[in-house]
Design brief:
Radius of gyration: 21 Å
Number of strands: 14
Order of helices and strands: EHHEEEHEHEEHHEHHEEEHHEHEEH
CATH topology of the largest domain: Aminopeptidase
Strand content: 15-25%
Distance between the termini: 48 Å
Shape: globular
Low-confidence stretches: 352-365
CATH superfamily of the largest domain: Gcn5-related N-acetyltransferase (GNAT)
Mean pLDDT: 90
Number of domains: 2
Strand order of the largest sheet: 1-2-3-4-5-14-6
Length: 365
């Protein structure tokens, strides 16, 4: 295994790390598949501003693809890794989606991080098993192989392009009944992007974790920092449900970057379970996404076996407008057999380390 660069087609050129934060935000606004994980703020907070890298692919002067990567230095060894989450971006707002744009972005990523910088490259493309088969074929042809330990995620994609009346009609009947009940319960929806609303949500979220004895999958305070750093047009929106006595009983956080909104966090307490506040919040979130130009809503993860309650809630919401899909998963590209072995070993060790850190963090609360 000795990876060598493959030239881009003659009409394409790739640029590395020549944009600043403002320019990058302007670039991702060009793409329908833009998402919060490809914003500068997300990775700058999660891994540090000095550990992010950007590739822009052009056809003449037109930008046709782009990708933000997180770079990581493995402790004790010289090898680094680059990770692209929900990228590259290649579905341009003003162009027909061309698989060759996807190919050019993958090739540019491989040429730079694998061939020139000798990194381990891992990408999590925003591609589903229901998408055209050519996308999976392009990944293979450009030297990307599925991660061997991968347990591919599953989600529901809800088409929210229709009218609100149509969306409500196409919900599951039981879900719609719960929404009707919530609307009769005198609940107030408070929403916004400012820090005070997010602080109120975090308090409710912490209560949920304590009650259910869950380990926190991600430090939600990171999202508080991300929110402060995001430009105004890319900020997450927080939704809170207050009962008549002013108590918060349910909350949700959503993002609307690109044409697909994302459900990021949700929380409810015993009172919220009774007054059905989460149903009212999801309905308001859909309205907000439509107001911000979204055509789809990614409900961000389902597992009917492990978490049947959440699955039925999300399936009932999406109803006839939902599409049950699996992500294609994560893909790796290596410069050598040694790098492949290190990636395999890391996949075995890192989850264990994260679990220990999560347990330690939870016990300190």
């Amino acid at each position: 295994m000795n990876a060598k660069p493959v030239p881009l087609d003659k009409c394409y050129t790739a640029e590395l790390d020549i944009v600043d934060k403002q320019e990058w935000e302007q670039i991702i606004s060009l793409f329908l598949d833009a998402n919060i994980y490809q914003t500068w703020s997300y990775e700058a907070v999660r891994c540090g501003g000095s550990n992010i890298s950007h590739i822009v692919v052009r056809s003449a002067s037109d930008i046709i693809a782009a990708a933000q990567a997180r770079t990581v230095q493995f402790p004790g060894i010289s090898t680094k890794a680059a990770y692209v989450r929900w990228g590259p971006l290649w579905q341009h707002r003003d162009r027909t989606a061309e698989p060759e744009h996807f190919r050019s972005a993958l090739r540019a990523l491989r040429n730079e991080y694998v061939c020139r910088q000798r990194m381990i490259l891992r990408i999590f493309p925003l591609v589903f098993d229901s998408d055209p088969e050519i996308l999976a074929r392009v990944l293979f042809e450009e030297g990307f192989m599925p991660v061997s330990s991968e347990n591919r995620g599953r989600t529901l994609i809800m088409d929210i392009g229709g009218s609100l009346d149509e969306l409500r009609k196409n919900m599951d009947q039981k879900w719609r009944n719960c929404l009707n009940r919530a609307e009769r319960n005198g609940l107030q929806v408070v929403e916004g992007a400012d820090d005070s609303v997010l602080v109120d949500f975090i308090a409710l979220y912490r209560q949920l974790l304590e009650r259910k004895k869950f380990q926190e999958p991600n430090d939600i305070n990171d999202f508080r920092k991300i929110q402060r750093d995001l430009p105004q047009g890319s900020k997450m929106n927080v939704f809170l449900c207050r009962s008549e006595d002013g108590a918060i009983s349910a909350g949700a956080i959503c993002s609307a970057v690109g044409e697909t909104g994302i459900y990021l966090f949700g929380a409810t307490n015993d009172q919220g379970m009774k007054n059905k506040g989460s149903y009212l919040l999801q309905w308001r979130a859909i309205k907000w996404m439509k107001e911000n130009g979204c055509k789809y809503y990614n409900l961000n993860g389902i597992n009917p076996l492990i978490n049947p309650g959440t699955y039925h809630f999300k399936a009932g919401l999406s109803g006839k407008n939902g599409r049950d899909v699996f992500y294609l998963g994560r893909f790796d590209c290596y410069s050598s057999a040694k790098c492949a072995a290190m990636a395999y070993t890391g996949d075995l060790i890192i989850p264990f380390i994260r679990k220990i850190k999560s347990i330690a963090s939870f016990s300190r609360r």
